[in-house]
Design brief:
- The protein is about 70% helix and about 5% strand.
- It has a two-stranded antiparallel ribbon with strand order 1-2.
- It has one domain.
- It is mainly α.
- The chain starts with 10 loop residues before the first helix and ends in a 17-residue tail after the last helix.
Length: about 240
């Protein structure tokens, strides 16, 4: 089955919001915060929103459209990473790179500390994003057929459990295996998994509002009965 060719009024807007939440999440993830006694990246306040948009995209427009947006988000994030990396390599102005801001730390050092990326963390982030998002979309699309379009809350929560679980496990393992003990890895995975899943569960009423509004506005409620679920398919 080919990718739907209909033109949707709100599809570009939802895509833009999805990409924005993804890029910003990766920037603010450098800060670790304490929530309910758990230490997690600051991105936990925003990254689950990307999964909510992923649910909305799949539920309203279908898996093929969601696949387009997932890859769009991936390449947009890649552009942001490359731009930040090049920005760090460019020669700094003398007055900017000298110690300033009432501390001996230079602005260049601050830039690298906050915006600098390590290859390992980048690889872990990109792999976790793709695996998690595609699993989330796949599970939701399949469950929509199984439930005949009923029980949206079961689909969104179930797909989140699978997608966020895979995302957390892949990222934490690839990024920190060999650096922190196995017990710490498991705790970090479970902490992120729980918080992200709880986040989307709490946001379920909002998901209902957005999905129902878009279905009415777009006159669309797509079922992926004959869809090619290959993440790399172009049609």
């Amino acid at each position: 089955m080919t990718t739907p060719t209909r033109t949707y009024r709100w599809f570009p807007f939802v895509t833009a919001l999805f990409v924005t939440t993804l890029v910003i999440s990766n920037i603010i993830a450098v800060k670790l915060v304490s929530l309910f006694g758990l230490f997690v990246p600051a991105a936990v306040i925003l990254f689950p929103v990307a999964y909510i948009f992923g649910d909305v995209l799949t539920e309203v427009y279908g898996y093929a459209r969601a696949r387009q947006v997932i890859w769009t988000g991936f390449f947009c994030n890649l552009v942001a990473v490359i731009a930040i990396w090049i920005g760090g390599l460019l020669p700094a102005a003398p007055f900017w790179s000298a110690g300033s801001f009432s501390t001996p730390q230079t602005a260049q050092q601050a830039y690298q500390a906050i915006l600098g990326f390590t290859p390992r963390l980048l690889a872990a982030s990109f792999a976790a994003y793709l695996i998690g998002e595609f699993l989330n979309s796949f599970v939701l699309a399949k469950l929509k057929i199984k439930t005949a379009g009923r029980f949206l809350w079961i689909r969104t929560i179930s797909s989140t459990i699978v997608g966020e679980g895979a995302d957390s496990a892949v990222f934490i393992t690839l990024a920190f295996a060999g650096i922190i003990p196995t017990g710490g890895l498991i705790q970090a995975i479970l902490s992120q998994w729980f918080l992200k899943t709880a986040y989307e569960t709490i946001a379920t009423p909002l998901t209902y509002v957005v999905v129902n509004t878009l279905k009415k506005a777009e006159s669309e409620d797509y079922f992926d009965r004959d869809t090619n679920f290959n993440p790399f398919a172009t049609s």
